[in-house]
Automatic annotation (TrEMBL), chain A:
PANTHER family: ABC TRANSPORT SYSTEM PERMEASE PROTEIN P69, PHOSPHONATES TRANSPORT SYSTEM PERMEASE PROTEIN. GO terms for cellular component: plasma membrane. This is Phosphonate ABC transporter permease protein. The chain crosses the membrane at residues 20-39, 79-100, 112-135, 142-161, 181-206, 213-232, 238-261. The keyword Lyase does not apply. It comes from Secundilactobacillus silagincola. It comes from the Bacteria. It is found in: Cell membrane. Pfam families: BPD_transp_1 (PF00528). InterPro entries: MetI-like (IPR000515), MetI-like_sf (IPR035906). Keywords: Cell membrane, Membrane, Transmembrane, Transmembrane helix, Transport. Belongs to the binding-protein-dependent transport system permease family. The gene is phnE_1.
Automatic annotation (TrEMBL), chain B:
It is found in: Cell membrane. SUPFAM superfamilies: MetI-like (SSF161098). One of its GO terms (biological process) is transmembrane transport. This is Phosphonate ABC transporter permease protein. The keyword Transmembrane applies. The gene is phnE_2. The chain crosses the membrane at residues 32-53, 84-114, 145-171, 200-219, 225-245, 257-278. It comes from the Bacteria. InterPro entries: MetI-like, MetI-like_sf.
């Protein structure tokens, strides 16, 4: 009896010790990282100052009403760029994923090449894409489109490949046993089964790209990101607030639509 | 495509009862949704892609110049304006920024998630917090950092607070979702046993969500690293993103961009190996 109590106490003591050690390690890491960056923890307590400033300055005023036209136009262009880049990337990456998935690949080397390519495309920062493309394609929507396209291509290829690999080999083998050709297996067996999963990924990516399109626009001087930067840096905060408001509305609307489609699909 | 099953019909007796028509309609709804979504997406893309290409645009020249730059970037990387040590420091700064924001974000988001999970919190709190987080999530990280760099001044404080905002909003949602997956029976049993909320959280919720907590936090770390680079470039918040921005849009030196991209790729490779290890360890 006594040894049981001892055991239980020991168990809880080790548990507590482990937890304390983890907490201490993370605490030290936090302090180290703060010092390394020059970050002052008390600024976390000043978050409300930022919100107050935001509310005070960013409320759209009379003068900013005149900007509606331009904002709506640029917002629409940004949305278009995000949707078009995702759709184009989805088509290409579906092809790449089918060729590259380990269950369907014609050769294992092809699979590895595609895997590396998608990892490369995904991990080159979007800033580098935007800058290189800006240099060659100049300041227009095509630059933003291509930057988002390459990022999305890398991401979706990887996601689609994993979806196809999760599909397994049994159904493919069963279809092959009935004499189905490669294309028949893909179009009759694989795609109908994974269509919902692919759709979910595409919708998620569109949502993400609408947000990223703002960043790319900021860097390449197009779309809603550019006019935000323009208004913000020329201290027209009312108009900048209007831009933020319109971005919120767009992103929330896209999220709601994709939730609706997701619910219809499930 | 698979033909809908209602083509096969028995001639003597038509299926009239609701039992047969429900599954068919269900599957049709799914097909129609997918088709409609694809048609809309294809229409938007095809209708607007040509308008993106400006007039007097020489695609050939642009493509050759792009290929040339890619070649310079990947085949001839070398430094001119900075030293490798400086860049290593800048990379370290970006990594620290990502780490710090993920740490603060995951701690704050855990408490927000507790307050907005359906298992513990009342509905008005769930709806309130989730909609607030949706609005915060809707504003891109760069805009948060730009806004806070006016309030705090340019630098680490603005970058940390700005990225943390977005991390908290993102993590709150995914943590709350994984807490919602816990079956309500477990919590009801514990409540019936007379346990307090703190005990339920410690003994049921934390052990249950630990694996998904770790994997989501790690995913957010990867996103935050990408965000740290973007923020450095677009909001001048320092780190390797700032160096990238300087050498590509001030010095136009793609040799240098190549070195930085290689450094970022090396770190991304490390992250990928860690995430692969984590996935195989948890499976």
């Amino acid at each position: 009896m006594n040894s049981d109590v001892q055991q239980v106490t020991n168990f809880f003591n080790t548990k507590r010790l482990r937890l304390s050690i983890i907490l201490v390690i993370f605490g030290l890491a936090y302090i180290g990282a703060s010092i390394g960056l020059g970050f002052q923890t008390q600024s976390l307590l000043n978050v409300q100052a930022g919100i107050a400033w935001l509310i005070h300055n960013f409320i759209p005023n009379e003068a900013s009403q005149g900007y509606w036209n331009e904002i709506i136009q640029q917002l629409f262009r940004t949305f278009i760029v995000a949707v078009a880049s995702t759709t184009c990337a989805a088509v290409v990456s579906l092809f790449l994923a089918i060729i590259g998935a380990q269950t369907l690949t014609p050769a294992i080397t092809v699979s590895w090449v595609i895997r590396c390519l998608s990892s490369l495309l995904r991990n080159i920062p979007i800033v580098a894409w935007a800058m290189i493309l800006l240099f060659s394609f100049k300041q227009n929507d095509l630059t933003g489109f291509l930057a988002l396209f390459f990022m999305t291509l890398g991401f979706l290829t990887r996601a689609f490949m994993e979806t196809i690999e999760d599909f397994g080999t049994e159904k493919i083998q069963a279809l092959q046993a009935t004499g189905a050709t490669y294309l028949q297996v893909i179009f009759q067996g694989l795609l109908p089964e994974i269509a919902v999963a692919l759709m979910t990924w595409i919708l998620y990516m569109i949502e993400n790209n609408v947000r990223d399109a703002t960043l790319v626009g900021l860097l390449t001087g197009t779309g809603i990101g550019f006019i935000f930067n323009l208004y913000f840096k020329s201290l027209r905060y009312g108009a900048a607030g209007l831009v933020v408001l319109s971005v919120i509305i767009l992103v929330v609307a896209v999220e709601l639509i994709s939730n609706l489609i997701g619910r219809l699909l499930s | 495509m698979i033909k809908p099953e209602n083509q096969i019909s028995i001639p003597t007796r038509q299926p009239a009862g609701p039992r047969l028509s429900i599954p068919l309609r269900f599957r049709d709804r799914r097909r129609v949704t997918i088709l409609m979504t694809l048609i809309v997406l294809a229409y938007i893309t095809l209708a607007t892609l040509p308008t993106m290409i400006p007039s007097h645009f020489k695609l050939g020249t642009a493509l050759t110049s792009f290929a040339e730059n890619i070649k310079i970037m990947f085949w001839q990387p070398h430094l001119a304006n900075t030293t490798f040590i400086t860049l290593l420091g800048a990379l370290g700064q970006s990594i620290l920024l990502a780490f710090l924001t993920t740490l603060i974000g995951s701690v704050l988001a855990f408490f927000f998630a507790l307050a907005s999970t359906r298992r513990l919190a009342p509905t008005y709190l769930v709806l309130g917090i989730q909609s607030l987080m949706a609005v915060i999530r809707a504003i891109p990280t760069v805009l948060w950092v730009l806004i806070y760099s006016v309030v705090f001044g340019l630098g680490a404080n603005a970058a940390v607070v700005g990225i943390t905002f977005h991390s908290v909003a993102y993590l709150t949602k995914v943590y709350a979702d994984s807490m919602d997956e816990l079956s309500p029976g477990i919590i009801e049993t514990m409540q019936a046993m007379g346990l307090k909320k703190s005990a339920i959280i410690r003994q049921a919720i934390i052990p249950y969500m630990m694996p998904s907590y770790l994997s989501w936090t790690f995913i957010r770390f990867e996103i935050n690293f990408a965000d740290a680079i973007a923020v450095g470039a677009a909001a001048g918040a320092g780190g390797i993103g700032y160096q990238l921005f300087m050498s590509s849009s001030f010095y136009f030196n793609f040799h240098e961009v190549g070195v930085m991209v290689y450094m970022i790729l090396a770190f991304a490779l490390v992250l990928e190996i860690i995430s692969y290890r984590l996935r195989t360890a948890t499976n």
